[in-house]
Amino acid sequence: MTLVVDAVEGAKMGQVVIYDDRGLIIYSSATVARHQRGILALSSGRIPLSAHAIWGRDRHYDFGHAAWYGGTILGDYTIPVAERIPDAVLHELRVHPRGNLRLKLRLKPDGVLFGWDIERTAPLGDVSIFEMPGGDFAETRY
C-alpha cells in the first residue's frame, strides 16, 4: 500500500503531520504543496480507518518521533478512509494481487480530499498504470 500526499494548486501547508486511526504517525513533512508531494509505503498492510492531518506554523520538530508539534495550528482535519474505498477495488486486489493500493490525501486550506487507485506495472514493465481511481479527485498522474 502506498500513501501519496500533496496539496491543491496554489496551496502550501507547513509542518504537516498525518496520523492513522490508532494515533500512529504515517506522514510528516516540513512542506506539502502541489509539486512537493510525498510518496511512501505504508508497511502495516492495514488500511487506516481514518486519517488525521494537522499543519501549522512556528511548530517544533521532534526528531525522536519524526513529527511536528506545538505552534499555531492552521489545519486540523480527520477524514474517513477505509469505509470510503469501494468493495470492488478491494476485491480486484484480492483476485489480481499484482497491484498496489494507493491512498491519496490532498490537503487544502479548508480540509483534506481523499482518493484511491490501484497501481500496476504496465505489460512492458517500464511504466505504471493506474486503475479504478475514485474519491474526491480521480487523477492518477501528477
What is the secondary structure topology, with strand pairs?
Blueprint: E1 2-7, E2 12-20, E3 25-33, E4 38-41, E5 50-57, E6 60-62, E7 67-69, E8 72-80, H1 87-95, E9 100-108, E10 111-121, E11 128-135
Parallel strand pairs: 1-9
Antiparallel strand pairs: 1-4, 2-3, 2-5, 5-8, 6-7, 9-10, 10-11
Any overview of this molecule?
By secondary structure, the chain is mainly beta. It is 6% helix and 56% strand. It has one helix and eleven strands, in the order ββββββββαβββ. It has one helix at 87-95; strands at 2-7, 12-20, 25-33, 38-41, 50-57, 60-62, 67-69, 72-80, 100-108, 111-121, 128-135. It has a five-stranded mixed beta sheet with strand order 4-1-9-10-11. The chain has a four-stranded antiparallel beta sheet with strand order 3-2-5-8, with no helix packed on it. Strands 6-7 form a two-stranded antiparallel ribbon. The longest helix is centred in the middle third of the chain and has 9 residues, at 87-95.
